[in-house]
Design brief:
Elements (H helix, E strand, L loop, with lengths): L1 E6 L15 H5 L3 H28 L4 E4 L17 H4 L1 H14 L2 E4 L12 H20 L8 E3 L8 H12 L4 H4 L2 E4 L7 H11 L3 E4 H6 L6 H10 L7 E4 L17 H10 L5 E5 L4 H14 L8
Parallel strand pairs: 1-2, 1-8, 2-3, 4-5, 5-6, 6-7, 7-8
Helix pairs in contact: 2-4, 6-8
This protein binds a DNA duplex (15 and 15 nucleotides) through helix 1 and helix 5.
Length: 306
DNA sequence: TCGTGTCAAGATCTT
DNA sequence: AAGATCTTGACACGA
C-alpha cells in the first residue's frame, strides 16, 4: 500500500489553515484585542483545517502536513499568557476524531530556524520550545506516533562528526512526547543519506529519506541498497519518504512545480514489496498530486493505494 | 483593488 | 564584523 500526500496548502484555495498575524500588529492592540485577534486566527485555521481534511478525503488523500503557523505565534513571548490548548480543546478533539475516523496521517515539519544540533544555548532552548509546540498540537489531537515531526540534522559548524554527535546529545534533552515523534531527514547540502541513517540508527529514531536531496548530495551510493535499513528505522510505524523533482539541470536543487511521472514510477516500482507513505514536495501541492495520479493511470501504472 | 515592504526565527557565504 | 542569501507565502498598509 502506497499513499501520497502534500504539504500545508491547497493550490487553488484561499482558505488554508496557515492564517497568521504579526508581532507588530499585535503590539498595537490592547491585551483584550490581542487575545481576540489570536483566537480569531486560530479559529479560522481550525475551520480551514476541517475543510482541507474533507477535500483530502474526497480525493483519497490520507497524508497531509500541518502548516507550522497553525497556532499563530505559538512559541513567541507575545502569546505566553494565551492558553490556546485549553480554549480550543473541543476543536482539537474534533480534528483528532475526524482524522482517526478517516485514517488521515498528519505530520509536521518545524521551520528551518529550529536547529537541534546548534552550539548556541538560546537557539537550543527555542528549538526545544518549537518542537514541543508541534508535539503538543498532535498530542492534543490524540494522534499516534505515525504523526511525526520531521527535522534536519542542522549546521555543520566546521566539524561534521562533532555536529552529528551534538544532535544525538541534544536529542536526549528533549521531552518524551517530542522524542517519540521526532524523525530526521537527509538534506541536500550537508548531511547525506548515510550520515542521517547512521545517526538515526545510533539514536533509535526513524529516518525520512528525501529522494531528491539524495540525488543532490551523495557519494555515489545506490539508494536502493539502503532502503531495507532505512525502513527498519521505522519499526512498526509506517515509513515515510519525501519525493520531488528538480526544477532543471542548471537549478537542480530547486523543486519543480510538478512531479516527473517517469522518475516517480521508476522509483516506486523498485519498492513494490513495501508499504509506505510519500510526501510530494512541490509548488503545485495537491494539484501536482492529482496530476501525477492521472499520469500514472494513463500509463497503466496502479499499485495499491495510489 | 493592487503593489510593495515586512515578517519570529539561524547558518553560511560574501564583502 | 556586518550584510546578503537561502526560500517563500501571506499579511498589512499605503497609493
Amino acid at each position: 500500500m502506497i499513499r501520497l500526500g502534500y504539504a500545508c496548502i491547497r493550490l487553488d484555495s484561499p482558505n488554508n489553515p496557515n492564517k497568521k498575524t504579526t508581532v507588530a500588529q499585535l503590539q498595537k492592540l490592547s491585551p483584550e484585542a490581542r487575545l481576540k485577534k489570536l483566537r480569531q486566527v486560530l479559529q479560522t485555521n481550525f475551520f480551514n483545517l476541517m475543510d482541507i481534511f474533507a477535500y483530502n478525503v474526497e480525493n483519497r488523500i490520507f497524508l497531509y502536513r500541518l502548516p507550522s503557523e497553525f497556532v499563530p505565534l505559538a512559541t513567541h513571548r507575545i502569546t505566553e499568557d494565551w492558553d490556546w490548548a485549553k480554549e480550543f480543546t473541543w476543536d482539537f478533539d474534533k480534528a483528532g476524531a475526524y482524522m482517526k475516523k478517516h485514517r488521515i496521517r498528519l505530520t509536521s515539519h518545524p521551520g528551518h530556524y529550529s536547529i537541534l544540533n546548534t552550539d548556541n544555548p538560546n537557539v537550543l532552548k527555542s528549538t526545544i520550545a518549537d518542537f514541543s509546540y508541534h508535539a503538543r498540537v498532535f498530542d492534543l489531537m490524540g494522534l499516534d506516533d505515525n504523526s511525526v515531526l520531521v527535522t534536519h540534522v542542522g549546521g555543520v559548524y566546521n566539524d561534521k562528526e562533532a555536529s552529528l554527535q551534538r544532535f544525538a546529545e541534544h536529542f536526549e534533552l528533549l521531552p518524551e512526547n517530542v522524542k517519540r515523534r521526532l524523525v530526521v531527514e537527509n538534506d541536500d547540502t550537508s548531511f547525506s543519506m548515510i550520515d542521517v541513517l547512521t545517526l538515526c540508527e545510533q539514536i533509535g529514531i526513524p529516518m525520512v529519506l528525501d529522494v531528491h536531496h539524495h540525488d543532490c548530495l551523495n557519494n555515489g551510493e545506490d539508494l536502493y541498497e539502503y532502503i531495507p535499513r532505512i525502513l527498519d528505522t521505522w519499526g512498526t510505524r509506517t515509513p515515510k519518504f519525501h519525493f520531488s523533482s528538480p526544477k532543471c539541470e542548471s537549478d537542480f536543487r530547486s523543486h519543480a512545480d510538478h512531479i516527473d511521472p517517469e522518475r516517480f514510477m521508476e522509483w516506486v516500482s523498485r519498492l513494490s514489496d513495501y508499504s509506505f507513505d510519500v510526501m510530494l514536495e512541490c509548488k503545485n501541492k495537491d494539484d501536482a498530486l492529482l496530476t501525477l495520479r492521472r499520469e500514472m493511470k494513463k500509463a497503466g501504472f496502479s499499485p495499491e493505494g495510489l
